[in-house]
Amino acid sequence: MKKNTILKIEDLKVSINDKEILKGLDLEIKEGEIHVLMGTNGTGKSTLVKTLSAHYDCVVTQGKITYKNKDLLEMDVSTRANEGIFMSFQSPIEVAGVNNSYFLKTAMNAKRTYAGLAEIDAMEFLKLLKEETGKFNIDRKLLQRDLNDGFSGGEKKRNELIQLLMLQPDLIMLDEIDSGLDVDAIKTVANVINSMLDGKKSILMITHYDRLLELIKPDFVHILNDGKIVKTGDYSLALELDEKGYEAIGIKDANK
Question: Which helix (H) or strand (E) holds 8?
Fold first, then answer.
């Protein structure tokens, strides 16, 4: 069965503070696929996912990005979110004074309104929240606090898992969601991600470690170097990289 392309990036060049970070990157992701970005620090991994989520730091100077057959670069950040793009940042910002539960319910209803659906009320929201978090034994008390305010690193990651479960995005971008997590927490992340793989949702994930990839088997592993994808393979490429390192597989660090 032929899969539809959900995201296509062509000759993408992106600068941050007038420094070119992405230097002609190409990538195509089809529905239901799991893609992993790997590479040394400073090669453009986070810049790519931040660009896709309309981060204000990233200035596109060349290239084309098509998402669901639409021009992604013509969409503002709210439209991208309502179109089903989700970004899990390395360090989510803390927003004191904004209740976490209210924020999530508002985001859900904004997406529903955009899709022409009726908003859910507080009772429906709480019922759905209990069902989804209960599947993975995720503590719902985080929703009683302000958005990420005073959260530990692990709490921020669990909060983003709750957002994932409730928002049900189509393109899930994870920027080192496994960073700093213990083995049990990584298993929870993997269980949530694997539960969402319905043949339609696609994953674009950044990681330096094989621990998460053992549990979420990627279809494609891409190695970035100097702002471009220089090598692509399957899960075996990640294993080879973990065993031998970058230089041993012919990837020289462009930062040195």
Answer: strand 5-16
pLDDT digits (tens, 9 = 90+) for 205-248: 998 777 889 999 999 999 999 999 999 999 999 888 888 888 87
Cα–Cα dist 211/165, whole Å: 22
pLDDT tens for each residue of 109-168: 999 999 999 999 999 999 999 999 999 988 888 888 888 888 888 888 888 999 999 999
Q: At 215, list the tokens.
A: 């549990």
The CATH class that applies to domain 5-249 reads alpha beta
Tell me the CA end-to-end span of the chain in Å, nearest whole number.
Answer: 45
Please work out, in degrees rounded to the nearest 5, the angle formed at the alpha carbon of residue 190 by the alpha carbons of 184 and 194. 150
In angstroms, what CA-CA distances link 160 with 75, 96, 193, 204, 215?
23, 17, 11, 15, 19
In 113-181, where do the E strands start and end?
146-147, 171-175
Six token digits for residue 180: 């700093």
